[in-house]
């Protein structure tokens, strides 16, 4: 990724199926997301939510809001889909919804920065004669 194009966003179920939304509606895919940045949203200790996650995601993705004709590149897109699902889950937990800016600041930017640093290091190492030695245990 060179930073010059838009990113596509999806939400995974517990089996790695990625639910994503575009001008053709909601898609479910097991492949095509190999080069993605994962942003963990559910902590391992949230057992009850983990058990409900798949059903919530499937039910949410079938809503009328995500029909193809409602897609708008700027206002009703894949990011809107992901954030709306997150806010749907938060509301079921009695929590306040996240704004687009708040979600971006708290979750997306930190993971993006981490990935950017990794990619920068990887590119530098690829252009130099380096040998990486594992640390002794």
From TrEMBL:
Matching InterPro entries: MKRN2OS-like, MKRN2OS-like_C
Domain MKRN2 opposite strand protein-like C-terminal: 1-125
Xref: PANTHER family: MKRN2 OPPOSITE STRAND PROTEIN (PTHR33963)
Protein name according to UniProt: MKROS protein
Organism encoding this protein: Cephalopterus ornatus (Amazonian umbrellabird)
Lineage: Eukaryota, Metazoa, Chordata, Craniata, Vertebrata
